[in-house]
What does this fold into?
Amino acid sequence: MDGKSFGQMERITYINIQKRKGDFMLYIIILLALMMIFYLWGHLLSVIFRIKHDVVSEWIIGIFLYFGLFQCIYFPAVMTHQSLQMLCIAWCIVATVITLIGIVCSVREIESFRAFRVRALEPNLWFIYLGCGFMFCILLYKAVTAHDVGWDAAAYYGSVAESIKTNTLFQYDGESGNYMEGINLHFAISGFYMHSAVVCKVFSLHVLLFQNVVVRTILIFSNCLLMYQISGGILKEKNNRIYALLVYMAMCMIINSDRMPEYFMLMRGGETKAYCGAMVYPAIVWLLINIFFNAESKKWWGYLLVVAFASVPISASSLVGVPIVIGAVTLVLAIYNKCVRYLLYGGICCMPNVIWGGIYLLNMRGYIG
Amino acid sequence: MRMGEWFYFWNIGQSYFGNVCYLLLFLFAAVYLFVMAKKNKTKLFLVYISIVFVVFGNLTYVVLNDLYAATMYRQFWILPATMIIACVFVDIISKRKNIWERVMIVALFLLILTQGGTGLNIHTIEKAENYYGINKEAIRCAKIIEKDRQKKGTEGDVRALSTYDMQIQMRLYNAYIDEGTCQDLWYITERFTATEELENKVVGLAETMTEDCWYYYQLPLYQVISGIGVVSEEVYVEALKQQQIDYVVIGKGIEDADFMMRSGCSFLGETDAYVLYEVQ
It folds into this structure.
């Protein structure tokens, strides 16, 4: 297809976008639906492997599982130059089937969910919950309304818009809209943006609103949950953990350096880089803390594998960083406990990134794509 | 390896926090954890130490230099520094029973935290005018262009010439509106912040341009929309034709209506800050 001519279908889709882009409620519904899907997928994983976990952990793992599986469908599609419509159909089928299975599994355990909810919320700390909720709302407002338009936003969000417009996958440059010879895996190795394209195309959403409202909200929410989980490795008292979360959120409002992941999260939360700093790395640290205290537990290693597998699909910035962290910690762990087996586990967890790195290098050398 | 590169991580460490106070707070928190920790927590601290050594180490820099040294600072994201500071702060507060001691610690903490050279992030993170995150003016201009595009029944993209910021914002709002000038030209000119220096640069570029140069047709367009230098109508018309520009979006105060009309452009519409012309 010529880069500057489009079929009637794309034109109709674009007109639909124009009509529905003001429907703000739709974005909220899609946000809630995605959040529910994350939990269901995480819960399904726990059920399949018979792991007992809390709602927060399941939700966090669910995000990584979701994007990891999306990559399994996206990557072959982008390398074989499939259309976005084809990817939409394939992903809708897979996501619907898995979500339905997740719903069936969750209905059985609705009682345990209620029990967790009662256990998690202590009545005497209502004012702290209120404070956390208030701070979260401020953070969210700050992130959603941040004005950040530069080359990065033009290229990344532009690639989503261009894919929807041309019904292709990363075949056009996001910033200029020019046709590109071959697939540039520097951008295309991560399926994160094409996931946005899929959702925007299926529900006729505007890219900017989806990225600014839905994507940023998911990041802020998951970051706060992850920080709460990390605080468990440092503070033992549950009340102190909630206080620490409150202080953390307040610090996010003060910190003023674009080198801090929190600042980046507020400023450029719709980009994969922000997901890398504020979600992927904290998740890795959270799991490694748990592994360090309970290295024999295979469930934590399994979760680490899931997160490592989904790290590149979420953000290509974690291509090198994640293996470094996992490698460093497992090395210390193996030396400290005098157990070489942990190195093997760590090596397995690093394998996805090694494979993605190999694919990336092959693409750079011009062998694939 | 050059001598300067050995200090690469020290330099990047200084700029990482943007403010040495954050770095000091994090170091204090790390030392506090090490001193106050019981056995299990010492293990935890060992993990952090190992990560710090690996990441802050020059070996990583040497290995990764060819891959993405320009964005190496992102390796520092592996340390959840903010949460560690918050946890240590809460731990210290919870161990103090005297209310005045607590107040003093909170005040000291806030004082250190807010000692940034550029103030709090509420001042530096610019608030967008709407949930699209782009300027209202860009949306208004994009709507006018889109209306005209649909009226003409244009199947493909149209090309709108404006400042780089406006171009990318209009394109983000409506992917059917392509950029009129390339980013490289914007980069060359915009990075000279002083107006006089910018003007000299642009005029200097114009004088040395030859027809086989990439910027030969880009530069006159840039000169018109930024109001820098003098461009003849013939050159401008040829540049519009060569770059296949469909619309010109110029800021009010910069635009010269007579010049635009003489160049074959017709008035399309206007917003509070911009005037739109359609290229015939």
Q: What stands out?
A: DSSP finds 16 helices and no strands in chain A.
